[in-house]
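Summary of Year 1 activities. Much of the first year was spent building the evaluation harness for sequence design. The harness presents a backbone, in tokenized form, and records the residue chosen at every position. We chose the following record to illustrate the format because it has been used consistently in internal testing since the harness was completed.
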């Protein structure tokens, strides 16, 4: 994978997340372009590359999200989104054999599945931080149930955007320098040889 192209796309996706947040929001819920990009990379990049790429997307998300822990006091937490996207990357790699990786509809379906794991891990870690187990300042007005519901609609909105924008990402494939893994080539060869047998 071409890392320069990835970083440019990741930065643009993050800028769109923040810049279009209010413009595209419906009842306070907007799409997450970074999630769409992360799922695309998880489906197309080499398996060894996916964890590092999605950790970077998660880091961008962590650095851009501040949590209110008191009057005039916001906190940046590095970790919840990093680990969430890392878990999502593992799921995305495992989904490769179940979806058509060059289909916008498959990208939208994968966004729902991967996004669920990303946000479950993220909300779980943030909820654990505010529990009695961890003796630190809790996030003000934090509710795991409300967050999961809000993020569920974000995932659905992102899936719709993924279907619409999937064609653009798929057409940009040559820029990324994705390579077909040997394991995938062997599976494809077995399928091809097997289909020729009578």
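For this record, the design step produced the sequence shown next.
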């Amino acid at each position: 994978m071409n890392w320069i192209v990835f970083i440019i796309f990741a930065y643009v996706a993050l800028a769109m997340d923040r810049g279009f947040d209010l413009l595209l929001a419906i009842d306070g819920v907007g799409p997450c372009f970074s999630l769409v990009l992360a799922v695309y990379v998880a489906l197309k990049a080499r398996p060894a590359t996916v964890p590092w790429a999605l950790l970077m997307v998660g880091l961008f998300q962590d650095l851009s999200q501040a949590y209110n822990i008191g009057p005039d006091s916001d906190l940046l937490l590095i970790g919840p989104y990093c680990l969430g996207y890392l878990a999502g990357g593992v799921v995305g790699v495992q989904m490769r054999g179940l979806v058509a990786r060059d289909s916008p509809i498959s990208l939208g379906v994968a966004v729902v599945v991967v996004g669920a794991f990303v946000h479950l891990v993220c909300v779980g870690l943030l909820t654990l931080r505010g529990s009695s187990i961890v003796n630190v300042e809790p996030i003000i007005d934090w509710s795991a149930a409300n967050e999961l519901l809000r993020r569920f609609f974000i995932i659905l909105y992102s899936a719709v955007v993924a279907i619409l924008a999937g064609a653009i990402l798929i057409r940009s494939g040559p820029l990324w320098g994705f390579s077909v893994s040997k394991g995938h080539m062997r599976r494809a060869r077995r399928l091809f040889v097997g289909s020729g047998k009578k």
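Residues 187-198 have pLDDT under 50 and may be disordered. Quantitative recovery figures across the full test set are reported in Table 2.
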